[in-house]
């Protein structure tokens, strides 16, 4: 059983409080049962969540007067579908302003890794650093098994109350299935677009795996600069194809990834930074050239992109898709790439009308890639762009 001091947590929560829970694979699951019980007892407690890529074991969403997420992941799909969690449409770069302003929490619940320098954020930093810097009180579950991958200072002692100690580590998210022939072809086409000394951001899943595999096959070093890092970054590191220390805000993968992130001495490997750094468009648009490789649920004839889901279900959130796409269009020698299979479950992914609101604007898309080839939209007017996309899907 998790060793959680429920009295220490109770002392930090007043009726009607908004509690933010650190997101990602290192979310403090050990405290979820105590948090839900406290919410039921106190009444009126509100919940703020972020990206949850794994199941939220033990968290009773119905116990809260209001629950919202700024980035639904797989772990929140059921909660969103059942109306227990409201999904706030926000690009990831805007979340720090939300948590420091209109959605400022009264308490921040985190899991933290011990280090010689103090308690560190472990397998993600995300928007949590913004809440820390805003002076929000912190309830920390110390987890000895978290990787020490966060750059920046430890959690401030004067803000932090330790409410428990565990040895659980981040959630393990298995590697994506082996890329299909379509995804392998898309990966090859994307790798062929990379300029020398490229910084690359890639999407998770089969597509990202296929892109990294194609980069490995080419044997040319790249800089990894992405919202999240999965196991493929270890493949690049072991092949000697990382041109610099990676930059990301989340780790999501298996023990192999977490061990790699924790392997550089007692201080770990500080590859994780806050969203204010990772998703800063001025930084992203600077040299070396940024190639942002994102995918889509669907795209319309003008090149507008939907990544949030279908008409009947929320699949994901806005996240960093528009942040990286916009920055890549401004990067000299860079590219904003949207890569997707031409069909999904037998239906074309080029649709006349998007099922959900636009995630990324058409003017922030440079090149569209499917297994059939590429459509370079740069410098084209609206009719020419429509014609190029129509040819790609023809």
TrEMBL record:
Protein name per UniProt: Acetyl-CoA hydrolase/transferase C-terminal domain-containing protein
PANTHER family reported in the protein's UniProt record: ACETYL-COA HYDROLASE, ACETYL-COA HYDROLASE-RELATED
Species: Actinomycetospora aurantiaca
Key word Hydrolase present: yes
A Pfam family assignment: AcetylCoA_hyd_C
Residues of the Acetyl-CoA hydrolase/transferase C-terminal domain: 253-390
This protein's UniProt keywords: Hydrolase
Matches recorded under InterPro entries: AcetylCoA_hyd_C, AcetylCoA_hyd_C_sf, ActCoA_hydro, NagB/RpiA_transferase-like
Gene Ontology MF annotations: hydrolase activity
């Amino acid at each position: 059983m998790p060793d959680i001091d429920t009295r220490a947590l109770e002392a930090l929560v007043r009726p009607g409080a908004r509690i933010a829970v650190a997101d990602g694979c290192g979310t403090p699951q050990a405290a979820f049962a105590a948090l839900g019980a406290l919410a039921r007892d106190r009444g009126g407690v509100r919940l703020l969540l972020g990206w949850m890529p794994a199941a939220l074991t033990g968290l009773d969403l119905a116990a809260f007067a209001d629950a919202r997420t700024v980035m639904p992941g797989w772990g929140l799909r059921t909660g969103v579908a059942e109306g227990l969690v409201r999904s706030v449409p926000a690009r990831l770069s805007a979340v720090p302003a939300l948590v420091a302003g209109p959605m400022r929490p009264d308490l921040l619940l985190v899991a933290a890794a011990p280090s010689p320098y103090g308690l560190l954020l472990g397998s993600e930093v995300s928007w949590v650093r913004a809440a820390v810097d805003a002076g929000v009180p912190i309830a920390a579950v110390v987890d000895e098994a978290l990787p020490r991958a966060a750059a920046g200072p430890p959690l401030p002692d004067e803000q932090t109350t330790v409410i428990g100690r565990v040895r659980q580590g981040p959630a393990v998210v298995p590697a994506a299935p082996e890329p299909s022939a379509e995804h392998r072809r898309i990966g090859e086409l994307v790798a062929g677009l990379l300029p020398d000394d490229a910084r690359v951001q890639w999407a998770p899943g089969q597509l990202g795996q296929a892109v990294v595999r194609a980069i490995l096959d080419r044997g040319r070093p790249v800089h990894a600069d992405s919202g999240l890092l999965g196991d493929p970054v270890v493949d690049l590191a072991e092949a000697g194809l990382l041109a610099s220390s990676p930059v990301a805000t989340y780790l999501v993968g298996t023990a192999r990834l977490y061990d790699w992130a924790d392997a550089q001495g007692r201080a770990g490997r500080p590859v994780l930074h806050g969203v204010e750094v990772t998703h800063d468009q001025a930084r992203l648009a600077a040299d070396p050239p940024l190639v942002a490789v994102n995918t889509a649920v669907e795209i319309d004839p003008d090149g507008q992109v939907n990544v949030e889901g279908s008409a009947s279900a929320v699949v994901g959130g806005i996240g960093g898709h528009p942040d990286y796409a916009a920055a890549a269009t401004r990067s000299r020698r860079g590219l904003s790439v949207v890569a997707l299979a031409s069909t999904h479950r037998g239906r074309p992914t080029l649709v006349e009308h998007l099922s959900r609101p636009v995630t990324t604007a058409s003017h922030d898309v440079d090149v569209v890639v499917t297994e059939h080839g590429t459509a370079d939209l740069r410098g084209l007017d609206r009719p020419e762009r429509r014609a190029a996309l129509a040819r790609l899907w023809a």
